[in-house]
Design goal:
Layout lengths: L1 E11 L5 H25 L13 H7 L12 H18 L18 E4 L5 E3 L2 E4 L2 E3 L15 E5 L5 E12 L5 E8 L3 E5 L4 E3 L2 H15 L2 H29 E7 L3 H4 L5 H7 L1 H15 L2 E5 L27 E3 L6 E3 H15 L8 H15 L2 H9 L1
Parallel strand pairs: 8-11, 11-12
Antiparallel strand pairs: 1-7, 2-6, 3-4, 4-5, 6-7, 8-9, 9-10, 13-14
Helix pairs in contact: 1-3, 2-3, 4-5, 5-8
């Protein structure tokens, strides 16, 4: 069975076009900041008798004719910026978004969006807004029909061409039934069958990054950061692809990297890339026809996967204990593998959403509902 999925081709732009793209990014920032100020003014209740949140359609109408004031971006790019701003603001549910700074320490990374019809093939190069661009690995565009894309700049100030394309993916029958994944800091992920994904891509380069920063070599430090990020992304892709190919059902614990980022374990949690792994598993399982879920991992470390007794190590003081023996049945366990097996058992019993952490949101929503309930019925709701 063959299914269609959207993938993004990321091709590096040759350095000869960087100056033009940098100037175009300044114009994009101007349009974005205008949309931010206009939307904020239209939604201001202290100044407007009928405040409203402007949609992308409204911003496109208000920006009609603005392309004559810009040298590099046209009307289609301005419309893409307005629609993207409206989409981001609606998703964030905020009064205004962050301003895109064009200079200084908080300078925003360059971004130049375009519509699919504005990017044309011209021989060995691509043409956009009257400018020819050459990219590396141009043969990847042969026979490809792309959709609306953008030019994006990374932290090293290199430019990349990002093109969403439709690809055909063949579905292969899995060799095994189900697997549980326990997320951690030393090992980013451990499967219930004993497979491990080692973490620490940033830790391995931390000393080199510190030396470059002390010498004032900011560009070298950015390159080292990008190398660590690329290594982490490649390792996560290989691990997630292996899981999707071998297993029909994949269950992951609902540990939150956002919450651990506010603790002393923040560096290890962010270096592991849990959120990226969940995202990759989600869209790869959807494309391959696999079952994926994020389940509660409460007591999965303490519970024995053999008998279910809560005899395992608990608390922060016992994090150093990686191997333990059940006091009831006498079975010895690897702490991470045992937790992964319990996660697989929980996932097999009940299905939850692929987003994870919904139980906490539902509990907060239920608590707010109970707080607004009448006192006579509050006890009945709590008891239920």
């Amino acid at each position: 069975m063959v299914t269609e999925a959207t993938r993004t081709l990321r091709l590096k732009v040759r350095a000869e076009s960087y100056a033009w793209l940098d100037a175009a990014a300044l114009e994009v920032n101007t349009v974005w900041n205008w949309a931010n100020a206009t939307s904020m003014d239209a939604a201001d209740r202290t100044r407007r008798s009928n405040p409203r949140w402007l949609s992308g359609f409204d911003l496109c109408n208000l920006s009609a004719g603005a392309s004559e004031y810009f040298e590099r971006i046209g009307a289609d790019s301005i419309q893409r910026i307005c629609c993207e701003y409206a989409l981001k603001r609606r998703a964030a549910q905020r009064f205004r978004l962050r301003w895109r700074a064009s200079k200084g320490a908080k300078r925003a990374l360059g971004w130049v969006p375009f519509k699919a019809a504005n990017l044309k093939r011209k021989g060995v190069s691509l043409r956009f807004a009257g400018k020819h661009f050459r990219v590396f690995e141009r043969d990847r565009l042969d026979g490809v029909k792309w959709r609306d894309g953008c030019f994006a700049q990374d932290s090293v100030r290199d430019w990349w061409l990002c093109l969403p394309v439709m690809v055909n993916i063949g579905q292969i029958a899995p060799g095994r039934d189900a697997v549980g994944i326990d997320l951690g800091c030393k090992d980013a992920a451990v499967s219930s069958d004993g497979g491990r994904l080692v973490s620490g891509m940033y830790r391995s380069m931390e000393s080199k990054i510190a030396q470059a920063q002390r010498r004032g070599h900011k560009r070298q430090a950015r390159r080292l950061h990008r190398r660590a990020a690329n290594q982490r992304r490649d390792a996560l892709h290989n691990f997630s692809t292996m899981l999707v190919r071998e297993y029909g059902r994949i269950y992951v614990g609902d540990v939150s990297s956002t919450r651990l980022a506010q603790t002393p374990m923040a560096k290890g949690a962010l270096d592991a890339g849990w959120g990226m792994l969940k995202t990759q598993l989600q869209y790869k399982c959807q494309s391959a026809g696999r079952e994926f879920a994020v389940v509660s991992e409460r007591n999965t470390t303490r519970a024995c996967s053999g008998c279910g007794a809560l005899t395992g190590p608990a608390g922060l003081d016992m994090l150093a204990v990686r191997h333990w023996e059940c006091a009831d049945c006498g079975e010895s366990h690897d702490r991470d593998v045992n937790a992964a097996r319990n996660i697989r058992s929980v996932g097999s019993r009940c299905m939850t959403s692929v987003r994870g952490n919904e139980q906490h949101r539902q509990a907060r929503r239920r608590a707010g509902h109970l707080a607004r309930a009448r006192p006579g019925k509050r006890a009945q709701a709590v008891a239920a």
